[in-house]
Automatic annotation (TrEMBL):
InterPro entries: Hemerythrin-like. This is Hemerythrin domain-containing protein. It comes from the Bacteria. Residues 3-122 form the Hemerythrin-like domain. The lineage of its organism: Bacteria, Pseudomonadati, Pseudomonadota, Gammaproteobacteria, Lysobacterales. It holds the Pfam family Hemerythrin.
Length: 152
């Protein structure tokens, strides 16, 4: 699978999980906990392969605009993974705060994914050959499996 298809598939999965989470009620604590764990694992795997493999290749192939996109994407990952997600993980799933934080994470991820798909991936298709995207995709699939396995 080429790098862009892999990342789009990840986006679709995480968005779906976040939508399911947003639709849960305060009483669905077990379901919320299970969905949140699945989101955490998939988000970590996704951001890892982007930051370690895809983004550096994109930045190297690009120009000033791509460098800006690269740094903006890193900051959006930091906001989601280092700020919003840890708060959500530490929030009681039966609380109203949980619902609010889950909504913020969903909106942040949706914005980030949409921006990547409309701008970064479009540029990447012009800057990187089909062969390069396929090679990146293979490396990313392998690394993603390692990250997911690390959650045991």
């Amino acid at each position: 699978m080429d790098a862009i298809k892999l990342l789009k598939t990840d986006h679709k999965l995480v968005k779906q999980l976040l939508s399911e989470l947003a639709e849960t009620s305060e009483r669905a604590t077990k379901k919320r906990a299970a969905l949140l764990h699945e989101i955490q694992v998939n988000l970590k795997a996704h951001t890892t392969i982007e930051e370690e493999i895809f983004y550096p290749a994109f930045k190297k192939a690009g120009r000033k605009d791509e460098a800006k996109m690269y740094f903006e994407a890193l900051e959006e990952h930091r906001a989601a993974e280092d700020l919003v997600l840890p708060d959500l993980l530490g929030t009681d799933p039966s609380s109203v705060e949980f619902s609010g934080r889950a909504k913020v994470l969903k909106e942040l991820i949706e914005h980030h994914a949409d921006e990547e798909e409309k701008e970064m991936f479009k540029d990447a298709k012009e800057l990187l050959s089909k062969e390069e995207l396929a090679e990146l995709g293979a490396r990313m699939e392998e690394r993603k499996a390692e990250v997911i396995a690390s959650f045991g």
